[in-house]
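Dear Dr. H.,

I hope your travels went smoothly. While you were away I took the liberty of generating a structure for the chain from your last submission, since the lab meeting agenda had it listed for discussion. I wanted you to have the full record in hand beforehand rather than looking at slides cold. The sequence, exactly as received, is reproduced here:
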Amino acid sequence: MSFLEWLLMAILFTIYLTCIFTVAAIAFRNGHWILGILGIFFPVFWLVGAVLPPTPEAVLE
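The corresponding predicted structure, in token form, is as follows:
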């Protein structure tokens, strides 16, 4: 693999880790567990779960 491929993989992995600790945490805190779990494979679900309003169960906690 060339240097450019390694660099691109490192950048994408860093973005993925950042999303895990920010957007995924917000999705789980809002009570969107299914979107949080699906986000492991399709990170766009983390964004959706973070933007949606909290579930009634999450508001009570």
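Two observations you may find useful: The radius of gyration is 14 Å. The chain has one domain: 8-52.

With kind regards,
E. W.
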